[in-house]
Prior knowledge:
Layout (H helix, E strand, L loop, with lengths): L3 E10 L4 E8 L5 E9 L3 E8 L3 E9 L4 E5 L2 E3 L7 H13 L1 E2 L2 E8 L10 E11 L12 E6 H9 L6 H13 L7
Parallel strand pairs: 4-10
Antiparallel strand pairs: 1-2, 2-3, 4-5, 4-7, 5-6, 5-11, 8-10, 9-10
Amino acid sequence: MDWKLLSSEYLFKDNWLTARKDKCLTPTGKIIEPYYVLEYNNWVNGVAIREDGQVIMIRQYRQGIGKTLLEIPGGTMDDTDPSPLFAMQREMLEETGYEFKEWVSLGSIAPNTASSNNFTHMFLATGGVKVKEQQLDHSEEIEVVVMPLEELQQLVLDNKIVHSLHTTCIFYALLHLGKMAMK
Length: 183
């Protein structure tokens, strides 16, 4: 069922977004043209739990939907990051000022398989200790919010965490921690 890429033309290239127009051939001989693909770097996100069991969340404005949201820490992998775990540890320290004793990979998911080429790598970090102040990027204004794990679980169940990639990571973390059962 795989398509064959016949040609590809870049329409826009920037640090945060690249858009291309593909011409593809299906196994049944159909030409699909144009097929637009957005290229992004891979992303990372993680559920962060302090030594005392409290969850570290962040609150920030999201221009895409024009709202300030409660989210888990995360961000874009840099070209210089040697691994998703390294990128997640860097993002966590920058956004929250915390380092963690244990890290668990929760897997990788594709944010939008129809039109995007990247993956999001998900993590659970435990044993967090604050070691420094935030080191935010120029465009970031992030408030750190601390809450009990049960409150985060209820926020997800009440559909109050709207970022789908973050909700997915939280569900995987809760499953890993035995706080949510599959039926």
